[in-house]
Design brief:
Elements: H1 2-38, H2 45-75, H3 92-116, H4 119-145, H5 156-183, H6 189-222, H7 230-258
Length: 302
């Protein structure tokens, strides 16, 4: 009996912790999504649908992940098969997580393309994102075909390609946006403050997702525990989704700093609006200095 309890803790404990963290991050995502729709009146309709898709996909992800715990510990507890065969929904996580991360990464690649006009940067982001998606799909198919816990190591190649490609994509995104921000410092203190915040938030979100993916890789390859990596794996998609929503929602405060309510400006544009501008140094930004007031800088949606 004691050995059985120890085996249950070893096999399903990390999955339980990962599902618990998944639930916490889902709550954060739900709050961020509500805040987004309260302040997204100027966003393009397709961006609103993108956020809705991410929320629906994350809801499905949470249901599938909790089902992985429910089936062996509630439906089949006491049966020796729980130590031999993976739960029914176990195979879905790589594909769902890769689909969400790829969606977020392509959106970030799109806005980088709008900012920098550099096709090769967007191409690099899209390539690594789709490699990650393909590897996630391959891993899901292999797990569905080989349902034994003892066979998890068979999927090591697909698993590693999936997570390493995703981490590489995050690094490209973070470096590209940081380069753009540093290159486009302005004479205006308020504008530079916003640029610094963009860079900091980009580095934070990109670093978190990349570190989580790399930690997942290390625990999978180094640990003898078959399921330890799921502490990270079941939280990964929520980190991507929350990074997307945190960036979109941060624009509200950035706009307040650039265009405070008690300051009358001749421009009603904001970070919510997408336009292309001209400037003597960089054609991607324009500064309105006709009345010697701080400029409003407009970017594609962040």
């Amino acid at each position: 009996m004691e050995n059985e309890q120890r085996a249950v803790r070893s096999l399903f404990g990390p999955i339980f912790i990962g599902s618990f963290l998944n639930g916490i991050l889902y709550g954060v995502l739900a709050v961020q999504t509500y805040f987004y729709y309260q302040n997204s009146s100027r966003d393009a309709r397709w961006i609103k649908f993108l956020v809705l898709f991410v929320l629906i996909a994350e809801t499905l992800s949470s249901i599938l992940d909790f089902a992985v715990i429910w089936e062996p510990l509630m439906e089949n507890y006491g049966s020796p098969t729980i130590f031999q065969t993976t739960p029914t929904t176990f195979s879905a996580d790589p594909l769902v997580t890769a689909a969400i991360s790829t969606t977020v990464q392509l959106f970030q690649g799109w806005r980088i393309r709008k900012l920098t006009k550099l096709n090769f940067v967007f191409g690099s982001i899209a390539l690594t994102a789709f490699v990650s998606l393909a590897a996630g799909l391959t891993t899901t198919i292999l797990i569905a075909l080989h349902t034994g816990w003892s066979q998890l190591q068979m999927f090591e190649s697909g698993f590693l390609v999936w997570l390493i490609a995703s981490a590489m994509c995050d690094v490209v995104i973070a470096v590209s946006l940081t380069w753009f921000v540093l290159r486009n410092k302005t004479p205006f203190t308020s504008t530079n403050s916003i640029l610094n915040r963009i860079m900091l938030l980009t580095l934070q979100t990109g670093t978190i997702t990349a570190v989580a993916a790399i930690a997942d890789v290390f625990t999978f390859t180094i640990s003898e525990d078959k399921t330890l990596e799921f502490v990270w794996a079941y939280s990964l998609s929520k980190l991507y989704s929350n990074s997307l929503l945190s960036m979109l929602n941060a624009r509200v405060e950035w706009n307040k700093l650039l265009d405070p309510p008690n300051v009358q400006t001749q421009s009603d544009v904001s970070f919510f609006h997408v336009e292309v501008f001209h400037h003597t140094e960089n054609p991607l930004m324009r500064y309105d200095t006709s009345d010697q007031k701080p400029a409003t800088v407009v970017y594609p949606p962040f």
